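so im writing up the methods section and need the RNA helicase record in one place, dumping it here so i stop losing it
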Amino acid sequence: MVCAILSASRCAPKLTTKGGDVLATFLSLGIGLPLHDTLKANGITESTPVQEKAIPLLLAGKDVIAQAQTGTGKTLAFLLPILEKADPHVEHVQALILTPTRELALQITTEAKKLLAQLDDIHVLAVYGGQDVERQMKKLRGKKQIVIATPGRLLDHLRRGTIELSTVSMLVLDEADQMLHMGFLPEVEEIIGCTSGDRQTMLFSATMPAQVRSLAKRYMRNPEDVRVQGKQITLKDIRQIAVETTDRAKQSALRELIEQQRPFMAVIFCRTKRRASALNAALQGYGYLSDELHGDLSQAKREDVMKRFREARLQLLVATDVAARGLDVEGVTHVFNYDIPHDVESYIHRIGRTGRAGEQGVAITLVAPKDRMHLEMIESGIRMPLEKRRMETAQPKKEQTSQESRGQRGAKAEQRKEKGRPPVRGQGGGPRSNSDSRRQGQKKRSQAARSERPAKRNARTRSR
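--- predicted struct ---
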């Protein structure tokens, strides 16, 4: 379908300017003047490699598999062709964009609405968990040429019969590898089965695991491959350290590293939502300004966490890989891999949160014995060894103590030892605590009472 708002100016010959500016670039890709003007108004002055490769193919109706990292401009690479081809006179769903997380769905929706600021006859609707279902159902009954959704909530509406996808002619699977890691592929396949058989399919992914390739083979027609290198992370600006420890001692090791490194702002990566939540609770118990970011949080909570982190009101952000996708916050001085990533691309993506804009950053990876194979793989992938350290002082038994003693009294005792001062009572190695003194006093009084009893009996006998 060709958008009815395509004017003669959109079909004009390709323009070239002496400077090769954005007008020539985007018009030469097939993007019309209305969208071009909106791009320019939003400060987008040049196209990116993934846009230059993908947009002409998508405008021509080709299926496309694009391997591109976050931050390469891939969102506009599929949004611009969709907006060009959407028909404002047809009110049913024409384009469906599937994303793994609510954050990404909202981000894409925001971008789409910016581009449609001057084209108010095309409507975009975000469908994701955490919203009121009844309210969503009401919106689904209105105009909605473009739907941006997470698999779980969209499938819920399909089963309720509140959305019809047989009219979808353009389907985008964004961050396909993350949908695989989150276990969404069965839902994705069920959703694909509800769309038109002659649709155009676009698959965007940072990595291409075998299962993602298999999905593409089953549901795409002669797809064109687009492969774009992401912005190269300057590893020379990031000091990379591997700290050998054990899984039981990780929490103690991390706390000691935080005290040593004194990060201004740090992102701490965990493998699972449960581990992220448990670690954040422990860090808060130690008295750190910390919070967690993962898929189990409500949308309002996630937005609040990110707002506080961007404003530097949080020092530590404990996150999972999926939740931190696209995380771009100034001032991050340290990245801690509490759980080692299992592939090189994830490692590079994680540590790329620091060492930006010419600033020096530090990336510290905690390595348990079972992680050594992954460490070797990472070193091979980045073609350089990591600086090695061993945490001899980590004491896992301390993890069993209360949060108060672990967090506050323990930290104070360590600080006093570092300064050469004697420990405060009750913080280990010093004089007995008040509770110890009370117990000792009770014991002496009890012994004294027992010794007095025979003397009192003898006195009563003599008085008789």
